Target: Actin-related protein 2/3 complex subunit 5
Amino acid sequence: MRRGRHTKHFAEDMSSFSVSVGDSSKHRNIDVDSLLREGYEDDDQSVDASVVASINDRATNVRTLLNKGDAAGSVAVAVDNPPFNCNDAALKAKNLETVMSSLSAVRAADIPAVIKSLTPEQVDNLVKYIYAGFAIPSGQYSGHLLLWHEKAIEVGGLGSITRVLTSRKTVN
Model:
């Protein structure tokens, strides 16, 4: 390894460098145990009542539309305006289940028409939910979600994937 011309001088300068700690009683005493994660509490752990109401209303509207046979309308309602600001995992899981039930109710032949009826923002939200559905360990929706993914990318393009993967707003 070749040494630079300043390396020798730096080493000589550092050899004369010393640090004096001084009296250790002058240092601050920090209670490290108070900084542990177990004792930490978030300031705001409550869930906004409007978010809970929104998720419950969405589930009710999707079920109503599915009972009427309007699977396309249920998908539009399910993917519209997701609860991005919700930190409660149980509520997000309930909302994801609502979306998955609406997606699974659509026949494979009707998927392209349903996706074409969505706005570009709704298509991006749909792709977010598709990826969240892939993360479900049971895998009960995986085959159907692959069809949805294929058709959503045909409509939304690769830009949709890029926007979803780089977005900080998640649905799960």
